[in-house]
Design brief:
Elements: H1 9-14, E1 21-24, E2 32-38, E3 41-48, H2 56-69, E4 87-89, E5 92-98, H3 111-128, H4 145-158, H5 165-181, E6 190-193, E7 202-204, E8 211-214, E9 221-224, H6 225-236, H7 251-265, H8 271-275, H9 277-298, H10 312-332, H11 334-350
Antiparallel strand pairs: 1-2, 2-3, 3-5, 4-5, 6-9, 7-8
Helix pairs in contact: 3-7, 4-5, 4-9, 5-9, 5-10, 6-9, 7-11, 9-10
Bound molecules: adenosine-5'-diphosphate (ADP) and magnesium ion.
Length: 351
Amino acid sequence: MPDNALPPPQMLHAWGLAGARLSPLGSGLINGTWLVEADGRRLVMQHVNPMFAPAVNDDIRVVTAHLRSKGLVTPELLPAADGNYWQLHEGGTWRLMTWVAGTSHERLSTVAQAQEAGALLARFHRALDDCRHEFHHARAGVHDTARHLANLRRALAEHRSHPQYAAVQPLAGEILGLADALEPLPALPERLVHGDPKINNILFDPATDRALCLIDLDTLGRMPLPLELGDAFRSWCNPRGEDDQRSAFSLELFRGAVAGYAAGAAGWITPAECRAIVPGTLTIYVELAARFCADALNESYFGWDASRYPSRSAHNQLRAASQLAAARSLLDMRGAAEEVVRSVFGAVSAA
Ligand SMILES: Nc1ncnc2c1ncn2[C@@H]1O[C@H](COP(=O)(O)OP(=O)(O)O)[C@@H](O)[C@H]1O
Ligand SMILES: [Mg+2]
């Protein structure tokens, strides 16, 4: 969960920013993120979540340089006065990066935004296709769905005395039941992907609503494409966002997102990857529901909003219920969603 500790003076000093103005930035769930203003410049300082080893920054540097060489906009890490791209302070890792003049959205409201997001993700994937970097910091099993489901079962077994157990148990039962009903995804080759392309990891130009760049690059790595696309579409196509029990899948936003992606990725994405987009999206909904639900008992991973919810468990229960509702909604329109994929990619390929 994010640690909202202010950047300490030693860290500001390390980057020659003593006396800079600080304000909290965005609503990330993982890192502590601060806008740093000094000498008319804007920069972003982050307290990196301890789940990421400092070596993650070496990977980010290689990949952002690759993106920039292909003409993509990206935040880039800035060296401290001692030449290092991160600093350790009282056991925590801090880093500084360039600020990109854009805003993130918690949910999409227009088809045009979905198209923009899809086109940006396709540009990102294609730009990285020839990047041969061996990652220093690989997060094994990010989308190992079976492992996430096992974690939920373990949390249920270990936290019977949790004050919220009676509320969490039936929710967990529904998530595990739905997981059992989903068919396994086909084995597909790995691609270099963002790893967390949720909607608030895209910066949009506030004036034009063009998608500018992907941020939050701690989860870069290789995985089968439908897991990355499933993670994107489960987030982008849920207009109620992650904190609403009435979440539902929007076929309109999906059509826009797939069309934007297809315009850039047709001829590159394979037919087998296309066929796995909808199953991949369902899988990620269920997997994320399981992760939120497990944390409703473990209370150790996701940040939460204490101003809106009575407890961390309550916030995570709501998030789990939200992902579950969206999964059910997509299941109800599965045939139509699969037809969207077929028709959009068919039309782009034929053009
Ligand atoms: N380089 C940047 N330029 C502008 N805004 C940024 C930048 N990096 C992060 N942000 C803002 O801060 C928020 C949190 O940062 P992010 O890296 O996504 O952290 P988390 O891992 O906690 O999600 C983003 O959603 C975005 O609004
Ligand atoms: Mg983020």
